[in-house]
């Protein structure tokens, strides 16, 4: 088996017969990882289930169940009379049936969670609410199983004093996730679990900044960040974002002594621009030269539809000047109130001492559940599945705008995220502001956010921020028709 690259990779499979997970679950997780890491090349043939079973000293039933599962997830392909092959393209779409997931395979054994109907979507949720993910396809059953397994007989460590940085297995799971998805080589000890971005900014401020320090923020940007900076007795300095994103040189013309910059380099919020490498390097160079910090808000990075994402900025700097802030609000949902910060190792003592003044706010109830959700693979499955779905929904909304509202709105495809910005055409701008457009839309039952509301100062451009993730293609098209009718009146 070891003569080929595939054979060599398969030799690395190692099953722990005394482990907490079943042999089937271990084999599933390891094979999936080998495929994802391309240790088994796309398109290559797997040995027969009989050979694999013999090599691994497990039953053929176990191997066949795992292979069936990976076929249903789109990692493997069974070809009649030929054998089983690794898919040429890694799966972005996973089966709609919840019964097809890894978790439910284990669940099938215990049988404790009956299939349930999808939850009702809140009636108040209307296109194009940008904060809405697809709520009906969240793997609630798997989540409930992880919750039950965690809290039915809680681990003693959970009931004693937990590290103030957060539940260690969750920090491990996040470190693994960041290595795989964001090319960020960090360790669990660098990760602090937050209740969201506001707590992240407070802790960073307490650990690294002094009252009255200027902090560069993006203009347009997420207003909450300016407020959070202000609440920590720092001075936010909104600085223009151009076609390429945030420009440190322009920003320093207004605030040459700034001590930090909060940026969204992987996908600017809300414009969606990816900050090019040259600008990233300039930012880091500034931070290193001025003892300042880049706070990398990587809020909107997971759902990338095209191309490979640039790795996180933090991975570019070995000078300990980039602090990474992440959130589960989009990938799971905002009500979860869990996020995290990755601190450079050299900052950890300062952070621990700042924590003694501020205290961690994230509830411990959900942290172990999320850790299991991530470690089991359910989280990655969910992201891939939603990514494919959201790509289709974006295509649907673009098509609908071109068909029904081309005289009103100008849109381009976005390579990532859950929303797009439709710019007002000159004709629409002459007739009304984006704020008025949003008000009219609201009376027609459609939610859009005026781009101008993302500016702290006078808005530079006019447009509508439109979320597409949480709505079916039909609802999106109908929403565009209603919007267009409201804007034409
Ligand atoms: C730019 C940006 N960063 C971060 C967040 C996430 O914040 P939180 O983790 O507090 O939900 C958001 C939410 O909309 C955002 O727009």
Automatic annotation (TrEMBL):
InterPro entries: Aminotransferase_I/II_large, HTH_trans_reg/aminotransferase, PyrdxlP-dep_Trfase, PyrdxlP-dep_Trfase_major, Tscrpt_reg_HTH_GntR, WH-like_DNA-bd_sf, WH_DNA-bd_sf. The keyword Zinc does not apply. CDD domains: AAT_like, WHTH_GntR. Keywords: DNA-binding, Plasmid, Pyridoxal phosphate, Transcription, Transcription regulation. Residues 21-89 form the HTH gntR-type domain. The keyword Zinc-finger does not apply. Residues 96-110 have a biased composition (Polar residues). It holds the Pfam family Aminotran_1_2. Residues 95-119 are annotated as: Disordered. In the C-terminal section; belongs to the class-I pyridoxal-phosphate-dependent aminotransferase family. This is Transcriptional regulator, GntR family.
């Amino acid at each position: 088996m070891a003569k080929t690259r595939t054979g060599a990779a398969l030799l690395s499979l190692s099953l722990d017969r005394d482990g907490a997970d079943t042999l089937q679950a271990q084999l599933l997780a390891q094979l999936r990882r080998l495929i994802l890491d391309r240790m088994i090349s796309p398109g290559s043939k797997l040995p027969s289930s009989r050979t694999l079973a013999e090599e691994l000293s497990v039953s053929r039933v176990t191997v066949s169940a795992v292979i069936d599962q990976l076929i249903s997830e789109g990692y493997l392909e069974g070809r009649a009379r030929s054998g089983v092959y690794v898919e040429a393209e890694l799966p972005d779409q996973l089966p709609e049936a919840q019964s097809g997931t890894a978790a439910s395979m284990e669940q099938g054994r215990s049988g404790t969670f009956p299939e349930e109907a999808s939850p009702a979507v809140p009636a108040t949720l209307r296109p194009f609410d940008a904060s809405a993910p697809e709520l009906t396809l969240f793997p609630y059953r798997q989540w409930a199983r992880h919750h039950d397994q965690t809290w039915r007989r809680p681990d003693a460590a959970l009931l004693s004093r937990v590290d103030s940085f957060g539940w260690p297995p969750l920090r491990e799971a996040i470190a693994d996730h960041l290595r795989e998805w964001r090319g960020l080589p960090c360790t669990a000890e660098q990760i602090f679990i937050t209740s969201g971005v506001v707590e992240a900014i407070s802790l960073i401020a307490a650990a690294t900044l002094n009252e009255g320090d200027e902090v560069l923020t993006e203009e347009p940007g997420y207003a909450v960040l300016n407020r959070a900076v202000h609440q920590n007795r720092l001075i936010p300095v909104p600085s223009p974002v151009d076609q390429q994103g945030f420009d440190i040189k322009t920003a320093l013309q207004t605030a040459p002594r700034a001590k930090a910059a909060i940026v969204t380099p992987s996908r600017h919020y809300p414009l969606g621009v990816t900050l090019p490498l040259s600008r990233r390097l300039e930012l880091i160079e500034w931070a290193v030269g001025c003892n300042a910090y880049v706070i990398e808000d990587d809020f909107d990075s997971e759902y990338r539809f095209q191309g490979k994402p640039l790795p996180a900025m933090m991975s570019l700097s070995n000078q300990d000047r980039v602090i990474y802030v992440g959130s589960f609000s989009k990938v799971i949902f905002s009500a979860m109130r869990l996020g995290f910060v990755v601190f450079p190792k050299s900052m950890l003592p300062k952070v621990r001492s700042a924590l003694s003044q501020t205290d961690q706010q994230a509830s411990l109830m959900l942290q172990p559940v999320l850790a299991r959700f991530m470690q089991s693979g359910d989280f990655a499955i969910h992201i891939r599945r939603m990514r494919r779905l959201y790509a289709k929904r974006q295509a649907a909304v673009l098509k609908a705008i071109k068909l029904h509202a081309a005289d009103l709105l100008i849109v381009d495809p976005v390579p990532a995220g859950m929303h797009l910005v439709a710019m007002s055409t000159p004709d629409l701008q002459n007739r009304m502001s984006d704020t008025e457009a949003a008000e009219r839309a609201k009376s027609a039952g459609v939610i859009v956010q005026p781009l101008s509301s993302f500016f702290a100062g006078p808005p530079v451009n006019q447009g509508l921020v439109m979320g597409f993730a949480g709505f079916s293609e039909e609802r999106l098209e109908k929403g565009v028709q209603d919007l267009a009718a409201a804007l034409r009146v």
